[in-house]
Structure formats: C-alpha cells, structure tokens
Amino acid sequence: MTEAKQGWLTSQNTRRRAAFVVALALVGSNLLGFVRNILLARQVPFAVLDSYYAAFRWPDLLFNVIVLGAVATVFQPIFAELKQKDGQAAAYRFTRALLTWLSIGLLAAMAILFMLMPWLMRVTLPYSGASSQVLAVQFGRILLLSPLIFGLANIVGAVLNMEQRFVAYALAPIVYNIAIIVGALSYGRWGNTGLVVSVIVGALCHLGIQLLGAGGLPRLLKPNWQWADAESRRIVGLALPRMLGLGLNQILLIVFTALGSLIGPKSIAIFNLTNDFQTTPTVVVGNTLAVIIFPGLTLAYAAHQKEQFRSLVVRSLELLLFLLVPAATAMYVMRAQLTRLYLALGKSLTWTDTVHAIQALGTFSIGVIFAGIVVVLSRVLYAQHETRRPMTYTGISALISMAAAWLFVVPLHWNVAGLALAYSLGQFINAVLLWLDIRRHSLPPAAERRLLSSALPRTIGTSVVMGLAIWASLRLGALVFGTDTVLGLALQTFVAVLIGTGVFLLAAVLLGSSELSWLFEERAQVMVSRPKELPSPEAGI
To answer: How far is residue 77 CA from its own chain's centroid?
Structure first.
C-alpha cells in the first residue's frame, strides 16, 4: 500500500472515530433538548413561551449573519490553506484577528438592536397583545449577549475541528442544554428573568468547555488588531454572500413568527417546539457529517486531491440517505405518539392544540431528509470557496417558503401545520437546487448513478418495510398497553421503536447495504470507495 493511500485510510479512520464521538454527544444533547422542551412546556405558560421564542429571533439574526456567515463559510478553508502554506503561527494570527474584529462588530450591532428592540418586537409580534411584546423586549435585550458568546465559541470550535479535537466541541451543546434545564426547573422560583439568564449561563458554559479543550493550542483570545491583510479582505468578500443567505433564513423565521401571532396564542411556541423536535435527525446525522467531512473536504480541495474529494462527497450522501430516510419515515408514522409524549404532557395544551402540534410534526417530517441534504451539500460548496451560489439558492427557497406560508395562513386560514409545510417546502427547493449544482460541477455521472440507482432505492425499500412494521406494532401496542396513560403511551412507542429498528437493520442486511459496514466494522477501508467505483480523476472537482 502506498504512503498516500495509507495516509488517506488513516484520516478516514480518524473521521470515523470522530463521527461516533460527535454523533454520540449530539444524541445526548438532543435527548437533553427533549427534556428541556418538555420541562419548558410543563413549567412555563405557553403565552410566556410565545414571547420567549419570539425574543430569540433578532439575536439569532445577528448570530447567523455575522458569526455563521464567517465561520461556516470561509474560516476553515482559509485556516487550512494558511496552515498548509505558511504554518501554524500564520493560521492562528488570522484566527485571533478574526476573533478581535468579530467581537467589535458584534458589540456595535448589539448596541443598535438593544435600542431598537421595542420596535423590532412590534414587527415580530404584530398580532399579539402589548404585554407579550413588552415581555419579548425584556427577553430579547438579555439574549443579545448570546451572539457575542456564541461567536467566540464557534470560532474556537472551528479551530478544534481543524485540529481534530472533537470531544470538547461535541460536549458544548450538552452543557448549554443542562443550563436551560436548570432555568426551566427553577421557573417557579426565578421566574421569567431566570429563564433567559439560564440561556446566557449556558452560552458561557458552551464557550468555556471549548476553551478548556483548546488547552495546549496557541492563545486564541489574545487580541490581534491587524486587519488590512490579504486574508482579512478575502474573508469579507467570501462571507458576504453567505451572510445574505443566512440573513434571509432568519428573516423567514421572523415572518413565520409574525404569522404565528396571527394564527393565535400558543402557535409560536408549538411551531418552535415541534421544529426543535424535527431538527433532531438533521443535527445528529446531517450536522455530524458536515462537521466531520468539512475539514477533509477543505484539505482535499486545497491539496487538489480530486479523487478523495469526490469519494468523500459520495460516501457522505450515501450515509446521509441511509440514516435520514428511515428517521423521517419513523417520525411521520409515530407523529401522534411522539407529540403526545413530547408536548401534551404540558399543563396548558388543550386537545385542539395537541392536534395542531401533531399535524405540524407530520408536515415537518417531510422536510427532514432535504434539511440534511442542504447541510451537507452546502459544506461541499463552501469547501471549494463557493458562497454566491448557495446564497442564491437559499434566497430563492426562502422567498418561496415565505410566500407559501402567507398563502397557507392568510387566505387559506391553516393552523401551525401550514407554517411547517411551508418550511419543509423551502428545504425541498434548497436541496434540489444544491443537488443540481453539485451534479453539474462536482459529481460525475458514475457517482450519480451509484446514488440514485443503488443507494437511494435500497434505502427507500428498507424504510418502507420499517414503516409498515412500526405501524403494525403501534396498532398492536394500543391493544396491549393502552394509550390513556403516559406509561401505556410510552411503552407503545418504545416497543414500536425497537421493532422498527430491528426490522430496518434486518432489511438493510438482506439488501446488502454497504453503509452498515462503515457504521459497525472496524476496517476503515470501507469508507473508501473501490477504485472501479470512483469517478475518473480527469474530471474536475
């Protein structure tokens, strides 16, 4: 075996171990997220939750536009290039400069939003009462601290990823959720202020644990005031399109929040809580793959390793489909049971509210697969320093989604499920546009045939069999356990999940799904496509 081949296999083995670490931590974080949301639904009145979730919209806009626009788009590729070309010292000087000027920009934007918050909440909650708007202003002003803290945390986390230190990065969301859980449990004592302060405490823990994980690396928080260098000018040029795209996504959520206030009380909380639930597969699968493959993609592209780049793209898409298609299927089949266990335990949901939440989760599940595709394929383009095309696709899908949401809610008078369907439609449009782009620029015909004629039909087949098994077990479980009590409902759902998982794995084995080999075998070579299956090296990336 050649030295280059051995190095590639070693890096694949490292990515595989890292994927398990990140996925395991994300599963734990999402389980804590379920506990967090259940406690919020039980401890906090839904009228307060409407203001609570509305208050996140503008701090999230600030965070997504300024922070994610730089980190997810251009920081890691430029960091990789600098480290490879000029050494570690140059890469870390660039990192400190980005942190310094990012903090200054965030502080200035936070001051502006703080003063404008009363007007912004009137825009965000136009159909809610004055008391809800006032409460949202109080929440929003406190939550403005979170973009700054998370901004620092995300740069540190990106460095940890590039240095293949995934443990601290993976543990950060766990401590964040634990802090909010404490705030929810203490709501009776600390009230509304304690609820949002717990978010800030969680953000500080999120940053702190990653700084501990960066021990031994050069000091990241030491200011560097240098700005007018080539990398700084380049990061602004590359980040602007992505910032616009992320800004459109946040504007979409602001529009959805305003339409939710038109639907009626509790609608904003139901939309956000069901949306949090349906993002679990995307976070655990899509984000894990994106985090793990992005350093490999950026390094492969920077080193002009076209074969490795395409191989990693194809294998990631295969694994993404293998895990997300059955997850979306199970979520749809079990939408009533999941919603009742997840939200209906709350003390302020009526049966009509519960039905609306069930319908919302069902329509959200349609977009689960496409949301994961968007996360992974966007990283493929970012690794190639391409930001304008993803921004265009995000803009198109956001506009279509907003138009659909207005149509469903205003003329058609649909409930929260209309917002969920509009959101899923936007994910579908974005995924299709990204796929057509990757197909045209980065995916030769042989790889496309491998995905569409082999991996996708096989995964759909196993998911359909699994869905039928879950449906049958739910019907049988209703007779055996009953669904009038929490225990009976939980047992019915648990048994259905076990049976569905077993049937899916059995069907995958019988159909010869190669993804199982990557997940469970010890050999790292299974992640590397066989030479005869790889696209020709002559094709451009």
So the answer is: 20
Q: What whole-number distance in Å separates Cα of residue 517 and Cα of residue 527?
A: 9
Is pTM beyond 0.90? Reply is: no
Nearest residue to 164 (alpha-carbon basis) of 308, 292, 284: 292
Q: How many CA atoms lie within 13 A of 340 on its CB side?
A: 17
At which residue do the structure tokens 């409460």 appear?
A: 135
> How far is residue 423's CA from residue 374's CA, in Å, rounded to a whole number?
13
Closest CA relative to residue 477, chosen from 466, 467, 488, 486: 488
- Pure H helices in 334-485: 335-342, 351-366, 368-383, 388-409, 416-441, 445-450, 456-480
451: DSSP letter: I
Nearest to 210 by CA among 173, 249, 183: 173
Express each pLDDT in 376-416 by its tens digit.
898 888 888 787 888 889 889 999 999 999 999 999 999 99
CA-to-CA distance for 407 and 263, rounded, in angstroms? 13
In contact, 538 and 439? CB cutoff 8 Å: no
Which of 450, 174, 169, 207 is closest to 292 using CA atoms? 169
pLDDT, tens digit (0-9, with 9 covering 90-100), for 437-469: 988 877 777 777 777 877 888 899 999 999 999
The rounded Cα 195 to chain-centroid distance in angstroms is: 23
What are all long-range contacts of 298-304, with beta carbons under 8 Å and residues at least 24 apart? 298/76, 298/77, 298/80, 298/383, 299/80, 299/84, 300/383, 301/77, 301/383, 301/384, 301/385, 301/541, 302/77, 302/80, 302/81, 302/84, 303/84
Read off the tokens for 502. Answer: 């077993």
What are the CA-CA distances from residue 47 to residues 41, 129, 338, 348, 402 (Å)?
11, 10, 23, 9, 24
Paired tokens of 242 = 């992505």
